[in-house]
Specification:
- This protein folds into 2 domains: about 30-140, Metal Binding Protein, Guanine Nucleotide Exchange Factor, Chain A (Beta Complex), CATH 2.170.150.40; about 150-260, Metal Binding Protein, Guanine Nucleotide Exchange Factor, Chain A (Beta Complex).
- Helix content is about 0%, strand content about 50%.
- It has no helices and 21 strands.
- The strands form 4 sheets. A 7-stranded antiparallel β-sheet has the order 1-4-5-9-8-7-6, with no helix packed on it. Strands 12-15-16-20-19-18-17 form a 7-stranded antiparallel β-sheet, with no helix packed on it. Strands 3-2-10-11 form a 4-stranded antiparallel β-sheet, with no helix packed on it.
Length: about 260
Amino acid sequence: MSLTQGSGPLGGRPAESNYTIDAPAHRILFEPDSRRLRALVADRVVLDTTRAHLLHETGIRPVTYVPLEDFDAELLERTQTTTHCPFKGDASYWSLRVDGDVREDAVWTYEEPLEQAAWLRGFAALAFDRADRWMVEDEPVAGWLRDPYHRVEVHVSSRPVRVSAGDQLIAESSRPTLVFETSMPVRAYLPRGDVVAGHLQPSNTRTTDPYIGDAIHWHVHAGGERYADAARSYELPRAEAMKIAGLVCFEADGITVELDG
């Protein structure tokens, strides 16, 4: 399970248990990450480390921190920006400058962290979207860095699924493939043959899920309404989700997906 989401120990809605944890409502865990991580701007490596740590924080996606000396110091320019976190302290910021390309306030660190987060001293974080590419070992990262506690399970099912928009039937299937993902509701992926013809219009939207892969999207038209990007499909998902290849999932405001009626 994820540590910081859903029913995880640092999540907002813990599962039923026969014990209690005497801890602050907002909890932080700083855990070593033994993977080699690199971040690049253009073709310049801005950080290269095998000493990263993951900061797990209640209700927040994990953030990677690395020793400040594992950044290329020639590329860092201190700025006047500061922010305050009541749980970690005051953060200082640096911009990254690579051959005239400036990524403002891309790196932050807690130079004098609060006592309860003293282990952050000497570590810094790079905003994931301020780098052009990330590498784990020698493989490129798709989407964002994956949480090692996040799981995806895919199972073929015979549970009936019905999809509607308003009062109009969009799809109906007794052969869905169900995706069970940490801290997420179960999602049903349906064979395209079980989608009522005429409701799907191709969209230009393309997204990447780090746990599943690259998705294409469709708009759904029903009852005179257009539901933008309300359906998606993974044509070539990651190996652990290969059973949903080519199947369609519906998820959007106004779309109702009924599992087991």
